[in-house]
Structure formats: C-alpha cells, structure tokens
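Same chain as my last thread, 233 residues:
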Amino acid sequence: MSSVTARNPVVLVIDDEVQIRRLLRITLEANGYKVIETAGGKDGLVEAATRRPDIVILDLGLPDMEGVAVLKRLREWSRVPVVVLSVRDRDEDKIAALDAGADDYVAKPFSTPELLVRLRVALRHAQPAQEETVFQMGDLTVDLAGHQVAVKGCEVRLTATEYALLRLLVRHAGKVLTHRQILTEIWGPNAVEQTHYLRVYMARLREKIESVPSRPTLLLTEPGIGYRLVTQG
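reply #2:
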C-alpha cells in the first residue's frame, strides 16, 4: 500500500454509476484526495494491484462481479482499507461485506460529511505504526500497554473477558465489528452463533464505562450487525 500523506491520500472508486463517480471525484478532490476511478470489479482489482491506493470506495452492485467477490479477492493479498458505498441497505448485505473484509459501510444516498469522516477513520486505522497505546474518548481512558482502564480518572476493574472485548473494540475503534468477528476473536470459531455471550458482556461493559448504560455514547450498537466504539463525540 502506498504511504498515506496528510494532504493527498489516493482513493480508488469502484462504482458503475457515472453520476456517483463524478460526485465523488468533485467531493474528494475538493478535500485533498487524489482519485482513481473504474466502473467494474475486475478493472478495480487491476487498478488496486497496479496503483496501490491508500483507500478504496466500493459499490456492491457491479456489472461484472459482485462487490463482495471483489472484496474477497482483494483481501487475498491486500489490507488496503475499503469503505463500501452501496444502495443495498439490508443487514444481510452489510454483514456480508464486513465479514468479507470491508472496514466500513455507508448506504446511498449518503451524507458527504459522514462519508469523509468514515474515510478518515478508515485511513487512521490502516496505519498501525502510528497506533497509540493509550485510547481516550470522553471520560474513558484505556492504556493498552498497561492493561488499565479508567473512567473520569478512576480505575475500572474488568474481568479478563471484559478487557479482551474492550481491547478488541479499541484496536478497531471507529470500525463496525460484526457479531461473528467479535465472537470468533474472543470465544473462538465454535462460538459464532452464541450472540447471547455478546449481549451479556456488552451490558457488563456498559455498566462499568458508560455514564448512562441504558443510553450508551461510547459502545454503540449497530442493529442486527454488531458494535462500534466511537472515536469522536
């Protein structure tokens, strides 16, 4: 992957709608991106391999191959961040894309400011060399190196599983993690159907780190899909 600069990250847009590509080019170039575009999945894979973009915006409904198939092919050799931008808004489509390796999912019609924020978050997440050992958001502080969690400066005691769950969310902060991804990472591949584990432990975490657990502002539920730890208020 090419190195990301503060001003000129390269974005590859794979979308068969000319109007969408035109809108994205105008918007992205106005915000400092260099834009490469293609209308098909096969050409998109070629561009990704030869041009090495910093980030990819991918439509799911492509004329030559499904967007999820493009994702799976891409993930065989690249960890470039991918933000899916699609008119498909069913939970099943979002889950399939995220499980196939997408970093985020934005539905059409989309809010330009929201898309730009999602792109910035995905780019930050793609730079492990710059990963901070201390995560701070609102009243929450997580020291990954010291294995310490604090709320409003007071230490919060977590069980090993609670900490493992929070650490996973912190390491992927801003990114939606599906139930399957979390269950596989924390409890193993045989637990992918045990979503009640997640509900119980997310409730425990919220009790310990949220100001009002019934109205969480840090650990957000993506209904029918998974969870996300916010990175900005």
